[in-house]
Write a structure and sequence with these properties.
By secondary structure, this protein is an alpha+beta fold. 51% of the residues lie in helices and 17% in strands. Strand 2, helix 9 (189-202) and strand 3 (216-227) form a beta-alpha-beta unit.
Length: 439
């Protein structure tokens, strides 16, 4: 009706009016009324959209009740038949014009099937055939949609943990051995098979003698809405293949209801709360494999002294040392930051600027700068920085930096170059990730 009239229909209002009319009609023994699409289209074709039409209909109905059914017999049969057939022909023509002439091939097939079943079998059977056919075509077409939203490697997508310089360099060189797959949509027998194909391609399972470059696999379920039993079986096959290939597998951001469905013991110890922690675990495992982190036993370390050695002792004398307790806030979201901070001991976490601080944006270790964006731009902080444990930072304010630039311009240039280098490294990683997403 909206297609023919070109107007938006308030379906809720129409249904409420029909229900109220049926209720009032029942008081005097009337029958249940319903919305007549055909009558509405007929009225629109006759340009009968005035409220007088409804009033005239009420009057004629009352006269028919008063005079009896014989009054209807006075109406010529061809007129009554035309009033019934005309709206149907209009709707049939509109339907054919939309589905047969302008629709896709699948729309045309469904339209013809419904029309034939309605004509030779029945209306309800035609509706059933249409629903089943449309559902089957939808499943087939949805199975063609790639459930892998994007694929990246550890060389371009990194965890929020600020690594020491030699660790970051190692991850850039060998990050291709970490594969990250982000899935989306509902995983069923059609789409799950596609996920399996992609994983087998990365693990080199398509050829028996292939040597895969992927040693650590992270699958992000953040945008997955659900899965069926066949998808569960496919994930178990992926876990089995990963074990056979000595590939470590992490399943990140899995919803509780999906985790309950994945009850196989091969998957139980692979769940990680979010993609950030999964990436951190994969990076730690890679660094251990490459013996690039031999000075740490647990793969996380403290990173004390790294990066600070890039600054001369004379420059460090211009900074003021601040000691932080566990849970102490260094920078508060929304506040204007007037200091540039350099972490010297411990670790701090940058949290999203929301009420619950439940989203980790960045975890910083010694040698990392904090507050540089607000310090140089003057804008309010967009996130909060909290000490994970006892920590120490060095800070310098604007006035002190201006004094440094006037007294020791070479030292000031050294500081600015190091801040620019660290910012450029993070920006480069972000640009590589964006390229992977848009690929």
């Amino acid at each position: 009706m909206e297609y023919v009239t070109g107007e938006r229909t308030d379906l809720d209002r129409e249904l409420r009016m029909a229900g109220a009319s049926s209720t009032l009609s029942a008081v005097i023994g009337g029958s249940v009324g319903y919305i007549g699409v055909g009558q509405t289209l007929l009225a629109r074709r006759m340009r009968a959209s005035s409220k007088l039409v409804a009033g005239a209909l009420v009057v004629l109905t009352a006269l028919t009740i008063a005079a009896g059914a014989d009054l209807i017999g006075l109406v010529p049969r061809f007129v009554a038949g035309a009033l019934v057939i005309s709206p149907g022909l209009v709707m049939l023509r509109s339907w054919a014009d939309t589905s047969l002439l302008r629709g896709t091939t699948s729309d045309r097939i469904i339209t013809i099937a419904i029309l034939l079943v309605v004509a030779f079998i029945g209306v309800l059977e035609g509706v059933a055939v249409g629903v089943v056919a449309a559902a089957a075509i939808f499943v087939w077409q949805y199975a063609l949609v790639d459930p892998v939203r994007f694929a990246a490697t550890g060389a371009t997508i990194r965890s929020s943990l600020d690594r020491r310089q030699h660790e970051a360099s190692t991850l850039r060189r060998h990050g291709d051995s970490i594969t990250v797959l982000t899935l989306e949509g509902y995983l069923f027998f059609g789409s799950a098979a596609r996920v399996g194909e992609v994983v087998r391609g990365h693990l080199g399972a398509t050829e028996s003698d292939a040597t895969p470059t992927t040693r650590h696999l992270v699958i992000d379920f953040r945008n997955v809405t659900g899965l069926d039993s066949s998808a569960d079986a496919e994930l178990v096959n992926i876990a089995r293949l990963a074990d056979d290939r000595s590939v470590q597998l992490w399943l990140a951001s899995v919803r509780p209801e999906i985790r309950e469905a994945l009850s196989d013991e091969r998957l139980s110890d692979r769940f990680v709360p979010d993609i950030d922690r999964a990436l951190e675990a994969a990076e730690n495992a890679l660094l251990v494999d490459l013996r690039a982190d031999a000075d740490r036993e647990d793969g996380t370390g403290t990173g004390e002294g790294d990066g600070i050695g890039d600054l001369s002792p004379d420059l460090l004398d211009w900074f003021e040392q601040i000691d932080l307790d566990e849970g102490q806030v260094l920078i508060e979201a929304g506040a204007r930051n007037q200091h540039l901070y350099l972490v010297t001991e411990g670790s701090l976490t940058v949290w999203a600027a929301d009420q619950h601080l439940d989203r980790r944006l960045r975890c910083v270790l010694p040698g990392a700068f904090l507050g540089e964006v607000g310090f140089f731009s003057g804008e309010a902080a967009s996130a909060s920085v909290v000490a994970d444990a006892a920590a120490s930072v060095l800070r310098i304010d604007r006035r002190r930096l201006e004094e440094l630039e006037a007294a020791e311009p070479q030292l000031a240039l050294q500081l600015l170059r190091l801040v620019l280098l660290r910012t450029t490294e993070r920006l480069s990683s972000t640009n590589a990730l964006i390229a992977d997403i848009l690929r």
